Write the structure tokens for this entry.
Amino acid sequence: MNGMVPTKMFFTKGVGHHLNKLQSFEMALREAGVEKCNLVAVSSIFPPDCRIISKEAGIKHLVPGQITYVVMAKESTNEPGRMVSTAIGLARPKDSKQYGYISEHHAFGHTQRKAADFAEDLAATMLATTLGIDLDLDKAWDERKQVYKIDHRRSFVSRSIAQTARGHKDGLYTTVVALAVMLFE
């Protein structure tokens, strides 16, 4: 038995502001398009043969009340002007028959680009260590090809989604989320 293995995944993100922290989280989930689901946080494996689809296509698969598995990054602040950031990174071998890694990153003070890069590097490092590879991020990243090159036989592709926001000027809670949403056919 293969168990429950997701066949599709999409990335989404959102920001919410509210007087109450929980409601600011709800507002962020609304912006992300997953507020109607019962979210279950899972760890970081990207399944073999899983296909990444657009947010718009993914949301069409969601049904109110559905148990939905996600890798989620979430951060909140009620300090005016404080930068909050979240990111989800994915690194997977070019061979779709192999599994990859998904990472989540939550931080204060990171720009959207810094958070996204950090999450991608983290996912690539986690994947490399499972394969027994000592990954030097500075040497492995090929900017032109947008891949992590390990050796002449192996390379990883990566991507990320990040969300940042500054704390609301009036001290309302500001919550940012980034999610990888897993779907089953």
